[in-house]
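Running this now, will post back.
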Amino acid sequence: MDEGISVIVPAHNAEGTIADCLRAILNSSVYLNEIIVFDDGSSDDTLKIIQGFPVRILSNPLPLGPAHARNRCVSVAKSEILAFVDADVIVHRDAIATVVLPIIERSVVAAFGSYDDRPRSNRIVALYANLRHHFMHQNGQSDAHTFWTGLSAIRQRAFHDVGGFDPRACIASVEDIELGVRLKTAGYRIRLVPTAQGSHCKDWRLLELWQTDIFRRAMPWSRLLVSGETQGKPLNLSRAERLKTILAYVTLLSGGAGCVTGWFWVAPVGIVAFAMSNVSFLALLYRVGGLTAVAAGLPLHLCYYVYSSATFVLVAGQKLLRREVRC
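Update: finished.
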């Protein structure tokens, strides 16, 4: 098997971004052995657009999800190093070279990068969501306990050793995080490379964001945590994240207490405390989107901590009830 790089792009109804995505990959500063694009049952012009590029095309008549798409592409890939890029990510010219470097140097078997701070959409909700993701990866530990397929790479040997992506994941969820858990359990090292970046083109709407955060991220991620498969401490369960969660609830309670008691000054105190605990992220919002982004981003961020933690409590409670019923 060639030591080179095979780039894998799963695409479903991606006609608005796939052309820019593939142009950016083809413009990469590193030589690529092949680019494999999987059209996952698209009902728009995605397949027609892909056919205009010098790439290898695989497809399904009906969508089966990105986990299946990536596994299929890996099964035909000719290179030892596999690079994954989402169809709505426009990679920087040096992004793939940067993310594969620690793998080539054999210090790790997998690595992943980050969204940049210049998302395509300036819609407030989209700006908040994309910058939240950027901020998380820019401030994460380099010795990672997770994996992310938006912009990443992995040795094919390690990929097969842990069984690839879970084929039961029929929609985009935490199948990449779950793969990272199995890699860590098998003793492999994963590197977060924040300098490997790409622009995210996702134009989030509010209900879409909340639905994705709760049902495709918080809920399956909570199931991983309560199952004991991963401790998650470098991510959502760090002391800093726990403090922010507590302050989010303090803010809500202080607002309620102010309305009941008439001490309306209590609510601003809670808001200020929560804002101070997130001052670095709010500074990023201000730098990119100004005061409007901060004013909208602060309540969105508070909601994020509330519904994410509430989902974890719900999942943990359900497991506890099942255990008591069995007893």
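Strands lie at 2-11, 34-40, 56-60, 79-85, 89-91, 110-115, 143-144, 151-155, 190-200. More later if anyone needs it.
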